[in-house]
Amino acid sequence: MGVYNVHERLLAAKADEVGALIDTLAGGEDDRLWPGRHWSPMEFDRPLGPGAAGGHGPVRYTVAGHVPGQWIRFEFTGPSGFHGFHELAVLPAGPDRTRLHHTLAMSPRGWARITWPLVFRPMHDACMEDAFDRAELACTGSVSRPARWSSYVRFLHALASRALRRGAEPLPHGAAVAPVADRR
Fold it and tell me: What SUPFAM superfamilies does the database record attribute to this sequence (predicted)?
């Protein structure tokens, strides 16, 4: 079973403006793409570039390649069974129009064959759409059709939030998930 998951958003902005968003990824205050308010923060052990190791929550990866303002690829290092990559690309689509494109390609093994479709995929899909909302807002000043979480994603998010409140550590490196009441 292979996984090929694509998200993209056509933005009314120049490619260099959209590309600048990719270069802010790192979960800090200057990050204009990662939806950190509602998701585990994205953190790296050094500035964004090849070899930087980090991730968000239980999803860990290493930067495998980076062309500033155009493309970045992350190779999975965790959770166990995630073998593959995910990447963001900036694709010019005409004058003042750019497609922000995200691809996740992997071959899940072991428990990942179950956890990917039941837990990680719905959460990943919601997180990516939230990130693309942030990109649209940063580039245009508004979001024409804001993403909405499904009831299942709200349920999964609530479970993760409850586990954190009880003192469990399902998300490594002190990551946090915003309480579901803060979201849509």
Answer: Bet v1-like
- Nearest-angstrom CA–CA distance, 65 and 77: 15
Query: Quick one: which H or E segment has residue 25?
Result: none
Question: Would you call the peptide bond into 58 cis, given omega within 30 degrees of 0 as the criterion?
Answer: no
* Two tokens, residue 45: 């052990």
Name the residue ranges covered by the structural domains of the chain.
3-182
The DSSP secondary-structure symbol of 96 reads T
| Cross-sheet strand order for the sheet of 98-106 | 3-11, 98-106, 84-92, 71-78, 59-67, 53-56, 42-44
Give the residue-averaged pLDDT of 57-79. 95
Encode pLDDT of 166-177 as tens digits. 654 444 333 344
User: How far is it, in rounded angstroms, from Cα 105 to Cα 59?
Assistant: 14
Please report which confidence band the pLDDT of residue 149 belongs to, taking 50, 70 and 90 as the band edges: very high
Higher pLDDT, 163 or 97: 97
Cβ pair 82, 106 in contact under 8 A: yes
Global pTM reads: 0.87
For 38-47, what is each residue's pLDDT tens digit?
888 889 999 9
In the chain, the amino acid numbered 14 is: K
**Which token pair is 29?**
């205050």
3-state secondary structure of 95: coil
* CATH number for the segment(s) 3-182: 3.30.530.20
